[in-house]
Fold each of these.
Amino acid sequence: MRALIVDPEAPGRLRLGEAPDPIPGPGQVLVEVRHTSLNAAELFFAERAEPGEVIGFDAAGVVVAVASDGSGPGVGSRVVGFAEGGGFGALRAMDTADLAVVPDGVDLGEAATLPVAAGTALRALEQAGPLLGRRVLVTGASGGVGGFAVQLATLAGAYVVAVAGSEESARGLSELGADEVAIGLDTVTVPVDVVVDTVGGDQLVAAYALLASGGSLQSVGWAAGREAVLPVGSTLGSPAPKAIVSVYNGGGLTDRHAQLRRLLDLVAAGRLRVPVGWRGPWDKIADAVDALGNRRLRGKAVLDVE
Ligand SMILES: NC(=O)c1ccc[n+]([C@@H]2O[C@H](COP(=O)([O-])OP(=O)(O)OC[C@H]3O[C@@H](n4cnc5c(N)ncnc54)[C@H](OP(=O)(O)O)[C@@H]3O)[C@@H](O)[C@H]2O)c1
């Protein structure tokens, strides 16, 4: 099959090439992939994967062979799903527990952005507990996870503070529902109940300091690639515990189908927008990697398999 394969000589270490066709296991359908999406995590894994490997978490397409155990949707169904690898291939064997049927009217390319980015945002916010009337701060709000976190927190009834790195990357965050948009954290002074942190480093430290008593920082990622050094004593003194909680939305979770179902229903109802900052044929992967890797991407990158 054709696939975006890891090539240490290619820009972004990914190029269109050939890879063996996947062989589905008993609980897997075979999907003809029509779209995939690029996440920050794939840049990380492209640096570490072996030449020729097919990475990629998200993929949306059409079922071309049913699962031999009888689970999952039939041939011709439009589906989207997650797996740890294989999303950048023209064919993908997908666990039926890790995919969902895409409703009519939802663009398959937009659906391809949901498993990692929107799924992680949803998981982070749910871990934080009820959000109605609470103050939620999202760092890296211009990014893939961040753009969905802003919207989902708004839908849940929170007052949302969206933090971006520049005026340019802050554009469009109010339209996603943010009540306040801040450039960096220096101007944010009112305590918040929940932080969804995708940046790490100094922003994690500053956001933790803003947490109200009993609040939680949901640690999604470390986009800044910098360590976070908490000042001495900063974790002490709050009457109720202030937590730093890790967020995990990778393989091995049992609620992926239900999570995707909910996200797709929100998109189908027009209540959740997919902020697409880059879309193009998959042979233009170098452009997408460049935009994401150099912080010029706002929202998600969709790769069309052509
Ligand atoms: N825990 C999990 O299961 C899970 C799942 C998905 C993603 N993640 C992690 O979460 C993080 C965000 O993922 P994503 O896909 O949303 O990434 P993304 O689209 O690149 O968004 C990250 C945002 O962070 C901001 N940022 C601040 N400093 C940065 C720096 N030095 N370099 C790059 N970006 C910087 C950027 O916004 P500004 O330019 O506006 O500052 C960017 O929009 C990554 O570390 C990823 O690996 C974890």
Note: The chain has two domains: 2-113+274-304, 117-246.
Amino acid sequence: MSGVLVIAEHRQGELREATLEALGAALELAPQTGRQVVTAVLADDPQALAGPLMGRTHGLRLMAHPDLTAFNPEMYLPVLEDAIAAAEPGLILMPHSSQGMDLAPALAGRLGLPLVTDCIGLTYQDGALTAQRQVYGGKVSETLVLKPASMYVCTLQGGAFEAPETSAVDTAGEEITLTELSPAHARRFVEYVAGALEDVDIAAADILVSVGRGIGGPENVPLAEELADALGATVSCSRPVADVGWLPKSRQVGTSGKTVRPKVYLALGISGAFQHQAGMKNSGTIIAVNKDPRAPIFAVAHYGLVADLFEVLPKLKDKLAG
Ligand SMILES: Cc1cc2nc3c(=O)[nH]c(=O)nc-3n(C[C@H](O)[C@H](O)[C@H](O)COP(=O)(O)OP(=O)(O)OC[C@H]3O[C@@H](n4cnc5c(N)ncnc54)[C@H](O)[C@@H]3O)c2cc1C
């Protein structure tokens, strides 16, 4: 196959972390393909977004037009068709975000390409792409061997791949000012409305102190918050905790919440149902505190403590204070 084309994602003038994760996936595949990774940035001022991409992509294709300030598939599709014709990639990667879910099928449909979504692993075998995905809410892992094709479109699950180091490769850039861009007919960007409960991005945290139903009630959540403060961590939770409003929905980890990959994930009173595990099992170090030795969380924990969290928390806090 030819190289890998990564479609960069940005919002409100900032490159999204998921783009760097896509570059991690692309660079993992580069040795298998023997070809290079090119990143396409479509924006009003793509140069301003290029900083975090330097050293993480072999080629940069910066495409500038005032109408590319915010994502609009009607604007992206024709521009990308040109970029794809120029780069002739064997694989087109993008995050499995709301943007990727909109763009990838449209692009695949328009170009008649095979599409595989929400991938957690990608490899090439005998010229055909093999993709790992989680299905049935993360209960089943499947490996799909796609029919050989000259080009594939893939979206990647958030948190499934690691961003590469900033000096992974040498980057050569190319800037293109688009003079003609057909106006969108059906859709136009009106404004960005942030989710009301998006108080903090748990996916960006290095350390998460995560609480489950075992925390007992909202009156005990401050115990976890104090520990998080002492550790420089962020508090996250399982779904029941968000459902009853002990913490905002934005803090929920799992299939119907967020996928996280912190360096340390401390699970307090979380049973570890597969819907929860699907959102955190790729964390660097998982530490679980649960009074039930048969709790499924221990199957993915690197360190497990069968104990009452209300006994463990004060001791941990004392240790950190001392
Ligand atoms: C379609 C669908 C989507 C879902 N999406 C998600 C999702 O995104 N995220 C998610 O988390 N769940 C999700 N769920 C729910 C999931 O199936 C579980 O019900 C949920 O994860 C359980 O949360 P929990 O571990 O906090 O609670 P429980 O399963 O009730 O576990 C509480 C745990 O705390 C322990 N415990 C109790 N007291 C203490 C104590 N004092 N000290 C130490 N341990 C204690 C118990 O032993 C127990 O293991 C989803 C379910 C469905 C059907």
Note: The domain at 4-177 is CATH 3.40.50.620 (Rossmann fold).
Amino acid sequence: MTLLEVRDLAAGYETGQVLFGVDVTVERDEVVSLLGRNGAGKTTTIRAIVGADTPHVQGGSITFDGHDLRATRSHRIPKLGLTLVPEGRRCFENMTVEENLRLAANHVTDPLAVDLILDQFPELAAMRDRPSKNMSGGEKQMLAIARSLVANPRMMLLDEPCEGLAPYIVRRIESIIEEISQERDVTVLLVEQNVAVALAVADRHYILDEGRIVDAVSTERLREDETLRQEYLGV
Ligand SMILES: Nc1ncnc2c1ncn2[C@@H]1O[C@H](COP(=O)(O)OP(=O)(O)O)[C@@H](O)[C@H]1O
Ligand SMILES: [Mg+2]
């Protein structure tokens, strides 16, 4: 069953069009990556999906679980079961781990209990009363993912969750994504520049270049096709 279907999406900013006919389809229970170089349009694509105030969507359709997201107010989208973990792992720096999670619960109808979420994040459970400004980059990323789980989503969009993190934390984030997918049955669209992360966690991959989907490949093909990786991802 198709959960997310993006068809012929055109979007951009005051400064000009950035996406030109993007097609992305994610089936229920899949982990799919959207790969592309810096500036390819990855963040623009997922911000368009969740109805952020920018970019402006100029054309195409976005359907989640049968709902037309272009006709849905952005604050309703988490209630439909779709959440975004934005790039830059923003959290409220002066609030504790627990306060950050409780605040996220205010925006949803049927939030998951904080304790239930913290079970999956022993690192965060150990610092639940600490302000998040004192946390490491990896811990902040875990908190950003945990915040997004409060809505008990059916699908999660993650924007470069491993960016700038040390290799052992990257492994930990990869295993959290696997747990979310396998144990919580959350469908995942992972935005990445890091091919190794995409290869480790995703079932298949879309490649975005200059605002266009230029290929859709299996993990096996992505691993083996060096020419493809060099051309569009530079690795
Ligand atoms: N708020 C914005 N205003 C104007 N242009 C933007 C804005 N955000 C991104 N862009 C431009 O859109 C293009 C795609 O950016 P983005 O979607 O952030 O790429 P990616 O996430 O793949 O690195 C880039 O050329 C970028 O400069
Ligand atoms: Mg980005």
Note: The pocket of magnesium ion (ligand 2) is lined by residues 42-43, 87, 159-160 (CB under 6 Å).
Amino acid sequence: MNGSGTILVTGGAGYLGSHICKALAAGGYTPVVYDDLSTGSRDLVQWGELELGDICDRERLSEMFLRLRPDAVVHLAGLVVDPVSIFEPDNYYRTNMVGSLTLFRAMAEAGVYKLVYGSSAAVYGMPEVNPVDEDQPLDALTPYGTSKMMAETTLPDFARVHDMDWLALRVFNVAGADPDREAGRPSIDHTDIMSATVRAALGKTKAVTIFGTEYETEDGTPVRDFVHPTDVADAFVRAVAHVLSGGPSGLLNIGSGLGHSVKEVIAAVVRASGQDVPTEDGPMRPGDAPEIVADIDLVKEILGWAPKMSDLDTIAASAWQRQTADCVL
Ligand SMILES: NC(=O)c1ccc[n+]([C@@H]2O[C@H](COP(=O)([O-])OP(=O)(O)OC[C@H]3O[C@@H](n4cnc5c(N)ncnc54)[C@H](O)[C@@H]3O)[C@@H](O)[C@H]2O)c1
């Protein structure tokens, strides 16, 4: 792909953001990261400049937009730990919802009308139909999911007033690591099952907790759609090209299209690592759907995107290799 232009990536110092900056740079774009480094890391800002700032700081955003005049924005900055959001709703609404509105307002003031928003599968809550397509009703069950949903639902309103081109990518469960060991991996706070299993395989925790074994799924544990961050980054680069060319705005699922249970993830890490992974049973968590898997027909059609590295064994092997390599360093 041969793109050009400056792309502001909010949250670009994080796990997904660093993969996206790397892919944007490889695609010919100049990424600039806007991040407060609250969970991200300066070391991960390798493909462009860092603008240090809070997504809720309107003056800082306006000053930066007027100086940089980016061609488009990829918006990822936010708080991301779904179970924690239940106990900190104010933080999650402030950062993910108020922060997004503050960003959209600063963009409009500076005349920047191209946006790719990093939304989440959490907006679907407990879908009645799987795989879930973009027309299914939204039913977010946690403050995290609701904050992502609220930010997403403002986009058509902003676009009507400001003639903005936008895509919201509803990203499913990102797991795995950059095979080149350059872009980031999930921070220690992430509660995702792949990271938790890798930590248990390394002996950093005594066991991986399986939250619920009596769901109505084949093996009783929740089923999720895991997608590799390199694949997700590819989708975002295509989305940037799409909005820059004035393509139609809308919502797109980004997943592998495959469902894997928690027990299958643990088995994949056992295969990748050759280690035993002790498990312990925990209670079902509020807001955990039995199953959520992406229908990815629309993104294939609109962006010509398909996952290439998102089979479970590839994801588990990359997560394991990265974690063990980082431990040695
Ligand atoms: N990782 C996933 O599985 C997943 C799935 C769906 C959607 N997403 C979305 O992708 C985005 C990135 O997630 P991630 O997994 O890379 O998480 P992450 O925590 O690694 O990245 C979030 C980044 O946002 C920054 N940030 C947080 N609060 C900020 C603030 N107030 N001002 C400026 N910067 C701030 C952090 O420092 C960090 O660099 C999020 O918006 C998340 O909702 C992630």
Note: The radius of gyration is 19 Å.
